[in-house]
Amino acid sequence: MKGLPLQSAHYLYWLQSYEQWLQIIGYSESAIKNWPVHVRELLHFLESRHIHHISLIDNLHINQFIGHVKHRSNTMREGALSSSAINAIINSVNSFTGYLNTTGKFALDYTVERAEDDIKLPTVLSIQEIKQLYDATFLPHRNKSIALGQRDRAIIAIFYGCGLRKMEGTALNLDDIDLNKKLVFVRRGKGGKQRYVPIATKHADDIRSYITEGREWFLYEHYARDYNNKYAKRKQVPDDGAFFISQHGGRMTVFYKRLTHLKEKAGIEKQFGLHDLRHSIATHLLQSGMPIEEISRFLGHSSLDSTQIYTHLTNNLNHEPDG
């Protein structure tokens, strides 16, 4: 129900923060558009019962709201709401209470039962699972090269530690990395936007090792093979400027195989992809207490435009959970 008035500034703040969170974590356009509308209905319902603060909400209030939804009329046509419409509202309520729990500000230990064919939620790895993934980069490789492990740790640093999208990480060049200032320059962000992203110290160390050793190894291997067999057909054109170098000397564009390899080595059963590393760092930063506005800037939803922001974000990142 669109346009329902809210009197509580407290509710308005958390509704706006929730909507930002849906965008940050990567929910579908439909969820971003509709779920806040359903949450607004919940908060309007609570206000009508003189409950004006989230800390006062309990399971009984949620049950009362769901009962109200199941029996209220459909505003778009005659009759009651369909099962799918009710499920959409339930999804929204569960998502909102989950968001509040994630912030650590409020604990609403409650989940409304819903249908099995719900919207698929983004996968978020736990802090322990990120650590397992990281530890797996040190396990032996078949070709006994430490360069693979160094590149794997750089992948985790860029896509988890810095929260870059796949296209942003793929487009990275070596001169986009400034380890002295601990900044990554994203020149090809979503919508053509450019930004700087801070690098936590522990991730900067892994990036430095990859640049000085692992990356050089991949380039050397390519040129050595090319020199030893000048008639060999090149699978990729060498790209000395690319940050991520493939085993054939070109710009690395496929990360799925390496991620699958690490997942199996780490013994992680969850199904996840490269973009889920971005979801995970966003969730972990929120859990650590970083304001959602700063997480939004960090992930490229708006520009990082001052040294003060860089410094403050870097301080937060340096206190993020180990991974």
UniProtKB/TrEMBL annotation:
As for family, the record states:
Belongs to the 'phage' integrase family.
Q: Where is the Tyr recombinase domain?
A: 120-323
Show where the Core-binding (CB) domain sits: 12-101
Biological classification of the source: Bacteria, Pseudomonadati, Bacteroidota, Chitinophagia, Chitinophagales
Q: What is this protein called?
A: Tyr recombinase domain-containing protein
Q: Which Pfam families match?
A: Phage_integrase
PROSITE patterns, per the entry: CB, TYR_RECOMBINASE
UniProt keywords, alphabetically: DNA integration, DNA recombination, DNA-binding
Q: Which GO terms describe its molecular function?
A: DNA binding
Keyword DNA-binding present in the record's keywords: the answer is yes
InterPro entries (alphabetical): CB, DNA_brk_join_enz, Integrase-like_cat_sf, Integrase_catalytic, Integrase_recombinase_N, Tyrosine_recombinase_XerCD
Q: Name one GO biological process term.
A: DNA recombination
Instruction: Look up keyword DNA-binding and say if it applies.
Output: yes
